[in-house]
Amino acid sequence: xxLVKKAxxxxxxxxxxxxxxxxxxxxxxxxxxxGSDTNPGTSPAKPFKSITKAVGLAxxxxxxHVMPGVYSPTTTKEKWAWRIGTGASTxxxxxxxxxAGPSKCVIDFGNTPPTGGYYIMVWHFASKIEIAGFTFKNSxxxxxxxxxxxxxxxxxxxxxxxxxxxxxxxMAIWGGAQDxxxxxxxxxxxxxxxxxxxxxxxxxxxxxxxxxxxxLFYAVGHNxxxxxxxxxxxxxxxxxxxxxxxxxxxGGPAKLPIAFENNLAxxxxxxxxxxxxxxxxxxxxxxxxxxxxAKGDYHLKPGSPCIDAGHVGALPFMGADFYxxxxxxxxDENGIAAAEIGVHEVNFNHLxxxxxxxxxxxxxxxTPYNASKSYPGFFFLGFRSFNASxxxxxFFGVDPTSILVMPPLPAPGKFQLALPQNPLLKGxxxxxxxxxxxxxxxxxxxxxxxxxxLTLYLF
Length: 459
Hints:
This protein is mainly beta. It contains two helices and 38 strands. It has a nine-stranded parallel beta sheet, with helices on one face.
């Protein structure tokens, strides 16, 4: 039975908007079909046409929302490189560039060479930068260093939920990159290494605390990951290198400051792991059992050795896996939550929303993947995010001190939320998540079943 509830936030949300400082003061919208670069770009009704235009303006406390479409030199007059970060006097800070999802939002370089050698440069004191939700394809192959995303001398950069197809070099992390997080991305094809992690100990500041986790490198035409240098505390967890033409993982420092755990390499032509340090037993060389990677289906099959075999440590910026589900669950229902290896986390239910917006009644739907199952649980809505992992619960992403409503929401189930029409709320981020539970497999207590945390902006 579906449970339907209604809540009116006409009083609570305006008070909240007045009481909290705005995290992101400016929102830009880009639409390849309906946009124009002569528009102001600050509303969904009058968006820009090119991402280039928005990125040039979104320098401080800004979100760029990119609607579904193909963005290229011919369709939207894109120009490269996008330089995110230009110096200490005018740094890029607190900027999100969010695509509608890699299946809907395509950046097609059209074989056009980038000015300066890179397509997207995150550098020179840029900080708190997020890039997510795109497919990148058709980069120029004349130079090996035509990287799609190049990062150096930057801090707190988060790249996730993207697909890099047949890129000359998908990503490079050079000297001075600190607190970079690259996760839940797919890298496939391409004539050069997909990801180069250069730990240059002569750079200033020195690179440190970069996290590369839960990525898939599939059928890359060279090495999947290359590591050089020896600086910083670097972390590589839960990645898969499958059927690449070179090595799966190559290089690295002989003496660890590197944390290299729970990675899987299989079927790579030159070898799976060629590293100078001793591999721990958590790293695997077995078939990951993906459903159909050649057809773009990167889900894990039942019985995959990747299920609940990932690193459980607190990973930065965890919000959802590649498929929009919770990134840390008790997938095998044994009472202990652990991450999977790869981009897919086995979940039990999925939270979605329709009709979201000011003056509307949003409908949240909690759907179990197994239609014959049902799970009791609750819905959480708050105004601050929270990255917490619990050994039994899994990932929980809404700050408990910020929760405004917490009604019951079983799976299957629906919850309706009436949103006031109030201009003070424009741009306010809202965070939602469902937490369900059910009997453990084989009996003996309960297993928690969290959904992904959704980040929703009020407009």
